[in-house]
From TrEMBL, chain A:
The keyword Transmembrane helix applies. SUPFAM superfamilies: MetI-like. GO terms for cellular component: plasma membrane. It is a multi-pass membrane protein. This is Oligopeptide transport system permease protein OppC. Residues 189-386 form the ABC transmembrane type-1 domain. Belongs to the binding-protein-dependent transport system permease family. OppBC subfamily. It is found in: Cell inner membrane; Cell membrane.
Automatic annotation (TrEMBL), chain B:
NCBIfam families: oligo_HPY (TIGR01727). It holds the Pfam family oligo_HPY. PANTHER family: D,D-DIPEPTIDE TRANSPORT ATP-BINDING PROTEIN DDPF-RELATED, TRANSPORT ATP-BINDING PROTEIN. Belongs to the ABC transporter superfamily. One of its GO terms (biological process) is transmembrane transport. It comes from Phytoactinopolyspora halophila. This is Peptide ABC transporter ATP-binding protein. It comes from the Bacteria.
UniProtKB/TrEMBL annotation, chain C:
Keywords: ATP-binding, Cell inner membrane, Cell membrane, Membrane, Nucleotide-binding, Translocase, Transport. The keyword Oxidoreductase does not apply. InterPro entries: AAA+_ATPase, ABC_Ni/Peptide_Import, ABC_transporter-like_ATP-bd, Oligopep_ABC_C, P-loop_NTPase. It is a peripheral membrane protein. The lineage of its organism: Bacteria, Bacillati, Actinomycetota, Actinomycetes, Jiangellales. One of its GO terms (biological process) is peptide transport. It comes from Phytoactinopolyspora halophila. SUPFAM superfamilies: P-loop containing nucleoside triphosphate hydrolases. The keyword Protein transport does not apply. Its main location: membrane. This is ABC transporter ATP-binding protein.
C-alpha cells in the first residue's frame, strides 16, 4: 500500500508545473470568452452550435445561393426561358473554352464553339458536331434581352452570356425547341422555390394560429382542432392534391394557378406545423418559468408572446425549413403529372414533365438530368440545413 | 373546544384566534382532479390531491408542510398562489386591517393584487428561470408588469434586489445559464422579493441544491425573514431542514393533515404514528448512532390518492393499527395545547421522537 | 501506456482483503468548451464484503468514477490515467483473497472480458430505475436475460432464480410480479426490481449510484435496510455513491470524500464523522442541519460555489473556499496524498506535501 503511494504523488507534482503556464496564460482569455458566453442570447448560442454542424453550414451557403438565383433569375440566366432557336433543337451541352488558339499563340478569350449537324433521313434526329471554326466570345455582364428587375429597374445586363445575343450558347444543352436548359432551370428555380416559401408561410400562419389556440386553451377547442387535423391527415395526399388541382378552373391565368397550387399544398402542410406548435405550447404551459410569469401577474398575451413564443421560434424555423422541401417536391409532382403549372410557366416539375418520354432520356439525357440534379441538391440542402437548425434550436439542452 | 366538530375542528380554533396575528386562514381546502375515461371523457373518479385541509399561518412565522411525494403538499402551495384553482374550501387572506378576502374564489382577473402579496419560490432553479431572459428581465418582470418601476429606476431596483440575495449587480445582463444552481435559486428568491410580498411559499426551495449551498440559502431565507418581516409556508420533504427553519409544522399524508404542532413538540414528542415513522426514517449523520437506534421501517407504499384505503388512510402501514382504524376515519382534533392530530389513539400511544444527541 | 498497465496487472500488488483498488484515476472529457477533468486523482480501496461510501457534491466526479470502473463513461469521456485493480474470483470459488487480479482501466471497454465482468462480477444500480429497466419487457424477463447472459442455465432454472431473487429483495407476490412491466410498479418496487436484477448473477461488487435519492424517506429506509440485509446474505462489497451524509453514516464502513474529481479524504466511517481531517470534510459536516439540534440555529456555511468544471482552481481545488487557506501554498501546489495511518489518507497541504510545512506534517502524522 505504502509502496504505491509515491506514484500519484509524483504525478500530482508533475502535472502541476505542466499545466500552470498554460493555465495562467489561458485564464484571462478564457474568462473573457466565458463572459461572452454568460451574456450570450439564445440566438448567439444557437449560432455557435449551428456553426459546428459542417454539413448544415455548407447547405446554408448553398440555400442562400439558390435564393439569390430566385431573386435575380433574369440577371443570372443568359437567356429568357422562352427564347428559342429551331436551328438548335436538342443541341447537346457545349463546353466553355477559356483560351483561344490563334496563329499568334494562345490568348485569353472565353468562348463557345458553334454546331454543325446532320439529320437522319428516317428518324429526323439530328446529330451535332462541334464546328471548330465558329467562335462565339462569352463575357461577363453582357447586354442581352431586356427585363425588369422586381418590376422596377429596366435593364438588359446579364451575369454572363455571348457578346452576340443571338449566338448559340447551350452550356447545359437545349430542349426540343432549342431553348437553353440552363436558363430554363434558373427560371424554374424561381417558381419552384418561391412556391415552397409562399406555401410554407401560408401553412405557418394556419399552423401557428390553430396550433396555438389548440395548445394554449386545450379542452374541447383542442379536441375539435385535433379531429380536423386527423381528418386532413387521413386523406391520401397525392389523390387529394390531384382532385383539388383538377378542380382549378381552366380559365385561370398562370398567376392564379400558381396561387391555387400554393393554397392546395398548404391545406395539408399546416397540420404538421400545427402539431409542432401545439406540442410546444403543451410542454411549455407546464414549465415552471411560465407558471412563475403567471404568478408575476403577467397578462395572458404577454405570457404567450414574451415568455412562451421565444422558447420555440427556433423550433418553428427548423420545422419550416424541413417543410419547404416537401412543398417543392409536391409542386414538382403535381406539375410533372400535368395537374399543376403548365407551359409557358417554367417550374422544375414542368421541366421534368418535358423529359418524360423514353427517347429524350435515351438520346438527350441533359433534358432530364439538369432539372433533376437541381431538385435533388436543393431538397437535400434544405433538409441538411433543417437538421442543423433543429439540433441548434435548443441550445440549453446538452 | 376539544369536542368541536370533527372536520371543522381546527377551523373553529382558528376562527377563535383570528386576530391581528393571522395572515392566512385556510379552511377545508380541497383539490380534486377528475380521472376522465372513455370517449365522452366523463369523470370516472377523482384524485383527491388535497382533501379538506384546515390551517392558519400567522404573521411572521414559518409554517412547515411536510410529507412524502404525492401527499398533496405541493398542490396545497399551488392552491394558495392560485396556480391551481381549488375545487372547494376557503383561503382567507388577511390584508392590512381590511376584510379578509377569499383567494380561493377570487376571479382570475382580480388576482393580480394578491399576487403581489403572495409569492412563490420554486424547487428547480433550472426550470423556473426562463433561459432566454437576462436577470434584469427575470427579476424586473414583476416590477414592470405591476407598473412599479421602469427604465433606469427598474435597473436600480433589480440591482439592489440582486445585492439583497447576495449576487453582484453587474450580473444583471447575464443569462441564467451563466449561474450555478445555488446562484439561480438566489435569482428566484430575488424575483419573489421584488414585489415586497407578505407571504412567500417556498416549495422544496433547497431540495435541488448541493449540500454546501443549502446552508447558504437557508441562512439567506432566515435573514430575509427577519429583515423584511416575511411569513413563509415552507414545503419540504426534508425533516431536518424543516426542524431548523420552521416555527410550526403540519404533516400531510395522502391529501390530509395528520398532525400539526409547534416544531419542538412535533420532533420530540410526535403524536401520530406516521410522524414517528417519518422521523425514524431520516438517516442521522452519525455512524455511532446507527446500531443504537431501533428504526421503524414502514411496510408497503404510500396509499393511492385516487383509491385511498377505508378509515384512517395510514392504517394499512401503521404498526399500532386497531380494528377501528380500518373503519372509522379519525378527525384532526385539538389536543388542548394548540397542537392537533388525526389519530384515534394519540393519547394512548407513547411515540418516540428525536432527541438531541451528543455527537 | 497500455503496455505499462498490463505489466502492473501481471505483478499484482493488492492488499489481501481488498477487492478493488482505484489508484490515481483520471477520467477526462475533451469538450468543445474545454477539457473537463471529471476525475483527476481518485484513489481508494474497497475491502471484501464491506460498504464504501463515496460522498461529494454535484460535479465532484463520484458518478464518473463509478462509470470508469465499469468502463461505461459517456462519450467523449475517457480514462486517461491510473489503475483500477480488481480481484476477479473464479465462478463458484467463493469470495476469498485468491483470484486473478485485472486492471479494468487497461481492458477494452467493448471486449469480452469487460462484458463478462460488467453485470457478472460487478453490477450497478442507478438513481432512476426507469433508465436501466427496459419499459417494453417484463421485469422477470429482464432478470432472466441478465442471468443467461452471464451463466449457462436453462430457461426454467433462470426463471426460478429470478423469482427467488425478486422474493429476496422483498417484492411481494414475486411470482405474479415476474410478469409486471416496470411502469406498473411504484418507485420503491422498481428500485427493488433493479436491485434484484443486479444481484441475479451474485456479483462480488455492487455499485449503487445514488439509489435512494429519488425516493421518499420511508421508502429510502426500506431500501437501505434491504441493502444491508442483502450484503449479509450475499457477502458482496458495495460501493455506495451519495451526497447525503445521513445515508453515509447509516451505510458506510469506509468513506471517501471527493471534491472536483479528487479524493480529498478517506478513512473509516467513525473517523471521518468524528475526526475529519480535511477542511472540506469538516465544513461539509458542519453545514448540514441535524435533527434534534432545535429550531433557528444558524448553520455554518461553506463560502462560494462549486467551481465551474472548465475553470478549476489552481493548486488545491478547494483552496478558494477553504477557511484554512494558506496563500502562496494552496493556490500553487496540488496536494499529494498523505497517509495518516493504514486506512486514513488526506490530500491537504496542512498535513504535508508543502515545502514549508514539513514541521506540521510531522506533528500530524
Amino acid at each position: 500500500m505504502t509502496h504505491v503511494e509515491p506514484a500519484p504523488d509524483t504525478t500530482g507534482a508533475r502535472v502541476d508545473p505542466d499545466t500552470s503556464p498554460e493555465g495562467s496564460s489561458a485564464v484571462p482569455g478564457g474568462t473573457k470568452r466565458r463572459n461572452n458566453l454568460y451574456t450570450a442570447s439564445q440566438w448567439r448560442l444557437m449560432w455557435w452550435r449551428f456553426r459546428k454542424h459542417k454539413l448544415a453550414m455548407v447547405s446554408a451557403i448553398f440555400v442562400v445561393f439558390v435564393y439569390l438565383l430566385v431573386l435575380f433569375a433574369e440577371f443570372f440566366a443568359p437567356f429568357h426561358s422562352s427564347d428559342f432557336d429551331a436551328e438548335y433543337q436538342h443541341a447537346p451541352p457545349q463546353s466553355l473554352h477559356l483560351f483561344e488558339e490563334t496563329d499568334d499563340g494562345t490568348r485569353f478569350n472565353p468562348h463557345v464553339k458553334g454546331f454543325d449537324y446532320e439529320s437522319d433521313e428516317e428518324t429526323w434526329r439530328r446529330t451535332y458536331t462541334t464546328d471548330e471554326s465558329e467562335i462565339y466570345p462569352v463575357r461577363p455582364f453582357v447586354h442581352g434581352h431586356e427585363y425588369e428587375l422586381f418590376g422596377l429597374i429596366t435593364t438588359d445586363i446579364h451575369l454572363f452570356g455571348p457578346t452576340d445575343p443571338d449566338a448559340p450558347m447551350y452550356l447545359f444543352g437545349a430542349d426540343r425547341n432549342g431553348r437553353d436548359i440552363l436558363s430554363r432551370v434558373i427560371y424554374g428555380t424561381q417558381i419552384s422555390m418561391s412556391i415552397g416559401v409562399v406555401g410554407v408561410v401560408l401553412s405557418l400562419v394556419l399552423g401557428i394560429v390553430l396550433g396555438g389556440v389548440s395548445g394554449y386553451f386545450g379542452g374541447w377547442i383542442d379536441s375539435a382542432i385535433q379531429r380536423v387535423i386527423e381528418f386532413v391527415r387521413s386523406l391520401p395526399e397525392i389523390p387529394l392534391w390531384m382532385a383539388l388541382a383538377a378542380a382549378l378552373p381552366q380559365s385561370w391565368s398562370q398567376v392564379q394557378v400558381y396561387f391555387g397550387i400554393t393554397v392546395i399544398l398548404s391545406i395539408v402542410g399546416w397540420t404538421t406545423l400545427a402539431r409542432v406548435v401545439r406540442g410546444k405550447f403543451f410542454s411549455l404551459r407546464e414549465e415552471d418559468f411560465v407558471t412563475a410569469a403567471v404568478l408575476d401577474g403577467v397578462s395572458k398575451p404577454r405570457v404567450i408572446f414574451r415568455h412562451m413564443l421565444p422558447s420555440f421560434t427556433s423550433h418553428i424555423i427548423a420545422a419550416v425549413t424541413l417543410a419547404i422541401p416537401a412543398m417543392i417536391l409536391a409542386e414538382t409532382a403535381l406539375s410533372f403529372l400535368g395537374l399543376g403549372l403548365t407551359e409557358p410557366t417554367v417550374s422544375w416539375g414542368v421541366l421534368l414533365r418535358e423529359a418524360q418520354d423514353i427517347p429524350s432520356i435515351a438520346h438527350t439525357p441533359w433534358v432530364l438530368i439538369v432539372p433533376a440534379v437541381a431538385v435533388i441538391t436543393t431538397v437535400l440542402a434544405l433538409n441538411f440545413l433543417g437538421d442543423g437548425l433543429r439540433d441548434a434550436a435548443d441550445p440549453y439542452n446538452k | 373546544m376539544t369536542t368541536a366538530g370533527h372536520n371543522v375542528g381546527t377551523a373553529g380554533i382558528a376562527g377563535d384566534n383570528v386576530g391581528d396575528d393571522v395572515l392566512l386562514d385556510v379552511r377545508n381546502l380541497q383539490l380534486h382532479f377528475p380521472i376522465r375515461r372513455g370517449l365522452m371523457r366523463r369523470p370516472a373518479g377523482y384524485v383527491r390531491a388535497v382533501d379538506g385541509l384546515d390551517f392558519v399561518i400567522r404573521r411572521g412565522e414559518t409554517l412547515g408542510l411536510v410529507g412524502e411525494s404525492g401527499c398533496g403538499k405541493t398542490s396545497t402551495g399551488r392552491c394558495v398562489v392560485r396556480s391551481y384553482d381549488p375545487t372547494g374550501g376557503e383561503i382567507l387572506y388577511h390584508g392590512n386591517g381590511t376584510q379578509p378576502a377569499d383567494i380561493a374564489k377570487v376571479k382570475s382577473t382580480a388576482l393580480k393584487q394578491y399576487r403581489r402579496a403572495i409569492r412563490m419560490i420554486f424547487q428547480d432553479p433550472h426550470s423556473s428561470l426562463n433561459p432566454r431572459m437576462t436577470l434584469r428581465d427575470i427579476v424586473g418582470e414583476p416590477l414592470k408588469v405591476h407598473g412599479i418601476a421602469s427604465g433606469s429606476e427598474l435597473d436600480e431596483r433589480v440591482a439592489s434586489l440582486l445585492q439583497t440575495v447576495g449576487l453582484r449587480p453587474e450580473y444583471m445582463s447575464r443569462y441564467p445559464h451563466a449561474f450555478s444552481g445555488g446562484e439561480r435559486q438566489r435569482v428566484g428568491i430575488a424575483r419573489a422579493l421584488s414585489l415586497d410580498p407578505r407571504l412567500v411559499i417556498a416549495d422544496e426551495a433547497i431540495s435541488a441544491l448541493d449540500v454546501s449551498v443549502r446552508a447558504q440559502i437557508l441562512n439567506l431565507l432566515q435573514d430575509l425573514q427577519a429583515d423584511r418581516h416575511l411569513t413563509y409556508l415552507f414545503i419540504s420533504h426534508d425533516l431536518s431542514v424543516v426542524e431548523y427553519l420552521c416555527d410550526r409544522v403540519a404533516v400531510m399524508y395522502v391529501g390530509k393533515i395528520v398532525e400539526m404542532a409547534d416544531t419542538a413538540s412535533l420532533f420530540t414528542a410526535p403524536q401520530h404514528p406516521y410522524t414517528e415513522a417519518l422521523l425514524s426514517a431520516v438517516p442521522k449523520p452519525d455512524p455511532l448512532l446507527r446500531d443504537r437506534r431501533e428504526r421503524i421501517v414502514l411496510s408497503g407504499d404510500v396509499a393511492d390518492p385516487a383509491d385511498p384505503p377505508s378509515g384512517c388512510y395510514f392504517h394499512p402501514r401503521c404498526p399500532y393499527a386497531q380494528p377501528i382504524c380500518a373503519t372509522e376515519e379519525p378527525p384532526l382534533r385539538d389536543l388542548g395545547n394548540g397542537n392537533s392530530v388525526a389519530c384515534h389513539f394519540a393519547e394512548e400511544l407513547d411515540l418516540r421522537g428525536v432527541t438531541a444527541h451528543t455527537g | 501506456m497500455v503496455a505499462e498497465s498490463v505489466q502492473t496487472s501481471a505483478s499484482p500488488e493488492l492488499d489481501h482483503d481488498s477487492l478493488l483498488s482505484v489508484r490515481a484515476l483520471q477520467t477526462h472529457f475533451p469538450l468543445d468548451q474545454g477539457l473537463v477533468k471529471a476525475v483527476d486523482g481518485a484513489s481508494f480501496d474497497i475491502r471484501q464484503g464491506t460498504t464504501l461510501c463515496v460522498v461529494g457534491e454535484s460535479g465532484c466526479g463520484k458518478s464518473v468514477t463509478a462509470r470508469s470502473i465499469l468502463q461505461i463513461v459517456d462519450r467523449p469521456g475517457r480514462v486517461v490515467g491510473g489503475e483500477i485493480l480488481f480481484r476477479r474470483q473464479r465462478r463458484g470459488a467463493g469470495k476469498g483473497p485468491d483470484g486473478e487480479i485485472v486492471d479494468l482501466a487497461a481492458l477494452d471497454p467493448k471486449g469480452a472480458q469487460m462484458r463478462r465482468i460488467r453485470g457478472g462480477d460487478i453490477a450497478m444500480i442507478f438513481q432512476e430505475p426507469m433508465t436501466s429497466l427496459s419499459p417494453v419487457h417484463t421485469i422477470g424477463n429482464q432478470i432472466v436475460e441478465a442471468i443467461q447472459l452471464h451463466e449457462n442455465v436453462s430457461n426454467r432454472e433462470a426463471k426460478e432464480r429470478a423469482v427467488e431473487v425478486l422474493h429476496k429483495v422483498g417484492v411481494p407476490r414475486a411470482k405474479q410480479r415476474f410478469d409486471s412491466y416496470p411502469f406498473e410498479l411504484s418507485g420503491g418496487l422498481r428500485q427493488r426490481a433493479m436491485i434484484a436484477m443486479a444481484l441475479s448473477c451474485n456479483p462480488a461488487l455492487l455499485i449503487a449510484d445514488e439509489p435512494t435519492t429519488a425516493l421518499d424517506v420511508t421508502t429510502q429506509a426500506q431500501i437501505l435496510e434491504l441493502m444491508r440485509e442483502l450484503q449479509d446474505d450475499y457477502g458482496m462489497a458495495i460501493m455506495f455513491i451519495t451526497h447525503d451524509l445521513g445515508v453515509v453514516a447509516e451505510m458506510a464502513d469506509d468513506v471517501v470524500v471527493m471534491y472536483l474529481g479528487m479524493t480529498v479524504e478517506r478513512g473509516d466511517v467513525v473517523s471521518i464523522f468524528h475526526d475529519p481531517q480535511h477542511p472540506y470534510t469538516r465544513a461539509l459536516l458542519r453545514s448540514i442541519p441535524t435533527m434534534g439540534m432545535g429550531t433557528r440555529t444558524r448553520l455554518n456555511t461553506i463560502k462560494g460555489m462549486v467551481p465551474d468544471p472548465y475553470d478549476r482552481p489552481h493548486g488545491c481545488p478547494f483552496h478558494n473556499r477553504c477557511g484554512e487557506y494558506m496563500p502562496g501554498t494552496c493556490d500553487q501546489i496540488v496536494p499529494p496524498p498523505i497517509d495518516l495511518d493504514e486506512h486514513r489518507q488526506v490530500r491537504c497541504l496542512l498535513h504535508g506535501g508543502a515545502p514549508s510545512s514539513g514541521v506540521r506534517n510531522e506533528v500530524n502524522t
